TrEMBL record:
InterPro entries (alphabetical): AAA+_ATPase, ABC_transporter-like_ATP-bd, ABC_transporter-like_CS, MetN_ABC, MetN_ABC_transporter-like, P-loop_NTPase
PROSITE patterns (alphabetical): ABC_TRANSPORTER_1, ABC_TRANSPORTER_2
Sequence ranges assigned to domain ABC transporter in this UniProt record: 2-237
Keywords: Amino-acid transport, ATP-binding, Cell membrane, Membrane, Nucleotide-binding, Translocase, Transport
Name of this protein: ATP-binding cassette domain-containing protein
Family matches, as CDD domains: ABC_MetN_methionine_transporter
One cellular-component annotation, GO: plasma membrane
Pfam family membership, one: ABC_tran
PANTHER family xref list: AMINO ACID IMPORT ATP-BINDING PROTEIN (PTHR43166), METHIONINE IMPORT ATP-BINDING PROTEIN METN (PTHR43166:SF30)
Alphabetical list of Gene3D superfamilies matching this protein: P-loop containing nucleotide triphosphate hydrolases (3.40.50.300)
Length: 249
């Protein structure tokens, strides 16, 4: 599904990615973890050519993206969705219109566009918020809109750059549930970059550990499942007090 072959990327004199080769199989939930600056986000952005490699090949769905012209690359990117830590929604567009953007760019006819926007908003459970604007939404709702937008062109791959790093633990669990559902019910291959070990361990089946622009190791794991945390106020108090011992201020 995704094959990188000896891919390198430098920013000025600094080599951020050093001749990396890796293969991500269709249907995997694949994690990438490592210290800040290890090169995780850059490697992810190389997978849809948001960063252009200096050397090497980037193959997605059997196409070497580095060999495509502008129009072909735009076409190929329709099957590669992406979400970000800061959601990247368009502030002056409604939820509905944000999800419609990629469909307009892909010149999907109006009626089909309507159907797809509604279908994607239903999938993430936000159809009731179609007319709201990003500023009126919680972080978790914004990320759901971003996910709906990423799904609009029915991608085969979803690239996730720190998708839960701006969210609280409960909302993180909700978003991980949405990603897992996308993988299981739509068969979308998912790549997640995160510095949060719990996030990676919860749903990934294979994980690459990165260090200094290189792959340190790649391991197969049994996903632990998504930890559901309570959001009841007494749960927070219990976590703050040892063995239920109350020490109220
Ligand atoms: N556009 C850029 N221009 C210059 N340097 C960059 C650019 N993008 C990334 N870098 C540098 O490349 C290195 C890898 O960055 P990258 O964001 O990929 O790391 P990361 O592992 O995702 O870290 P973090 O978790 O902190 O985002 C860092 O040293 C970063 O400063």
């Amino acid at each position: 599904m995704i094959k990188l072959h000896k891919v390198s990327k430098s920013f000025s004199q600094f080599q951020a990615i050093r001749s990396i080769s890796l293969t991500i199989n269709k249907g995997e939930i694949y994690g990438m973890i490592g210290a800040s600056g290890a090169g995780k986000s850059t490697l992810l952005r190389l997978m849809n050519l948001l960063e252009t490699p200096d050397e090497g090949e980037v193959e997605v769905n059997g196409q070497d993206l580095t060999k495509l012209n502008g129009k072909q690359l735009r076409q190929a990117r329709q099957s590669i969705g992406m979400i970000f830590q800061q959601f990247n929604l368009v502030a002056n567009k409604s939820v509905y219109d944000n999800v419609a953007v990629p469909l307009e760019l892909a010149k999907v006819p109006k009626q089909e566009r309507r159907n797809r926007v509604v279908e994607c908003l239903q999938f993430v459970g936000l159809e009731a918020l179609s007319d709201k604007y990003p500023a009126e939404l919680s972080g978790g709702q914004k990320q759901r809109v971003a996910i709906a937008r990423a799904l609009a062109n029915r991608p085969q791959v979803l690239l996730c750059d720190e998708p839960t790093s701006s969210l609280d633990p409960n909302t993180t669990a909700e978003i991980l549930g949405v990603l897992e559902n996308i993988n299981k019910s739509l068969g979308v291959t998912i790549v997640i970059v995160s510095h949060e070990m719990d996030v990676i361990k919860s749903i990934c089946t294979r994980v690459t550990v990165m260090a200094d622009g290189e792959i340190y190791d790649t391991v197969s794991i049994e996903p632990e499942g998504i930890k559901q945390l309570s959001n009841q106020p007494n749960w927070f108090t219990e976590q703050l007090t040892k063995d239920g011992e109350k020490n109220h201020a």
